[in-house]
Amino acid sequence: MNKRTLWFFLLTCIGFYACNSPFTPKQTGYFKIDFPEKKYQLFNDAGYPYSFEYPAYATISKDSTYFNETTENPWWINIDFPQFSGRIYVSYKQIGEKNRFDTLIKHAFTLTGKHSSKAYSIEDSLFSNPYNVEGVFFRVGGNVATANQFFLTDSTRHFLRGALYFDATPNEDSLGIVNQFLIEDVKHLINTFTWRKQSKQ
Hints:
Radius of gyration: 25 Å
Number of helices: 3
Strand order of the largest sheet: 3-6-7-11-10-9-8
Low-confidence stretches: 26-30
Mean pLDDT: 81
CATH class: Alpha Beta
Shape: globular
Largest sheet: 7 strands, antiparallel
Helix content: 25-40%
Number of domains: 1
Strand content: 25-35%
CATH topology: Protein Transport Mog1p, Chain A
């Protein structure tokens, strides 16, 4: 048997075996993520009406525009998580005639409710911390743009809203483990959050 005949025989056998072997689809998998150690630092910049602790693996930048319009005041910020392509958008409003407390509450629930078309659940939990800060934490289930949202207030002067977004196509399965990791950081932010004396704009 020459080499050409031998190779033809081997390829025929392989082809026959491949055609008759059962097909087993591979399960969907995601890249392994190495999470950093939990360490926190204080955000306490001069002029801001609030302070809190945030992760050492996050950065904070001032947010000067909101949908291409100037923000209402200079105390809007972004908390970025470069490793996870995530960001917490933080907006702040002063309660008063322009921003009535009941209107701000209603607006926060409305913004969360906008995800209802793609969400299979929306859970809201009341909370308070030792520093006269109260609010609601929203957990949205489903392939939504932001699964974790919250607002903080003292009900008389201050109102702050935060929403965690990712620069990725919404996918509850692939983002689930990252969301779970960052929820701990959001809760730490909330538990260490304090209001400061209001500064002039």
